[in-house]
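Entry 14. Structure prediction run on the chain below.
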Amino acid sequence: AIETLDSERYVGMYTSLSLDAAGSPHISYYDATNHNLKYARWTGSAWDIQTVDSGGGWSTSLALDAAGRPHISYGFSEYGRYDLKYAHWTGSAWDIQTVDSEGDVGLYTSLALDSDGRPHISYYDRTNGNLKYATNASGDWEVETVDAAGTDDVGLYSSIALDGSEDVHISYYNA
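Output returned:
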């Protein structure tokens, strides 16, 4: 069945979907009308829709931790450039952090959580044309360049996954 859950003028861009243990959908998306990152979850009887961050929400990627709490990586646009941001639900509020703001970054994000619920994010650095990776598995955000452009653009449309040993794997487009 097809269902409309939000019908503002320009809403629903850059969606990411995750299912919880009960099979209920959780969705992150960009509301271009109001320039907001939004999050929607099915409660079993209705959609609960929240604004996570005002002013951003491009290239969202959503993952649920073992407790079913949402984590979202996304690009936040400010003054025509993008920062990489990360938001997660603490159980009572959204905790929003800026992960990388060096240049024009935070596009084409992909998020995976390790077994302890710690985020691992791949994303595109448009300023340098590089693929980057960020994690706070050690408790502090660590950012590194995975593949440098040289003469090409690398890192667009990335997808990240962790294997059973929690090693990071990233696929991406090299222009």
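The radius of gyration is 16 Å.
Filed with the rest of this week's runs.
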